[in-house]
Design goal:
Layout (H helix, E strand, L loop, with lengths): L3 E4 L5 E5 L12 E6 L5 E5 L4 E5 L5 E5 L8 E6 L5 E5 L4 E5 L5 E5 L1
Antiparallel strand pairs: 1-2, 3-4, 4-5, 5-6, 7-8, 8-9, 9-10
Length: 108
């Protein structure tokens, strides 16, 4: 459905964000999702080849990895220091970024 559904803590429906496309607030095959220590939502946007970051309410903040750093992200995790780990399927590696989107390193 090219969107993210947001649930309350008690798992009741809160809302959605995103629609199909390549614009900042749009998603094209979102594959995985994670949240950082501030509650910001990171979406692995598979067909747009980037990570998109949103507020907990679904407002677009930024994207990163779209300059060829990531091709077809399929997994995302964020550690306790807000380091973002991306499974980069096409490049057969895991890439690490800061929460602001600065590339740190890759392995694999």
């Amino acid at each position: 459905s090219h969107r993210v559904q947001i649930l309350n803590r008690d798992l009741t429906f809160f809302g959605t964000f995103g629609s199909q496309g390549s614009g900042n607030e749009q998603l094209q095959n979102p594959y995985d999702i994670a949240a950082d220590s501030d509650g910001k939502i990171y979406v692995a946007d598979y067909s747009n080849n980037c990570i998109k970051v949103f507020t907990p309410e679904g407002k677009f903040l930024r994207k990163f990895g779209s300059q060829g750093q990531i091709i077809h992200p399929t997994g995302i995790a964020i550690d306790c220091c807000d380091i973002v780990y991306i499974v980069d399927t096409r490049n057969c590696r895991v890439s690490l970024f800061t929460a602001q989107g600065q590339f740190l390193k890759s392995f694999g």
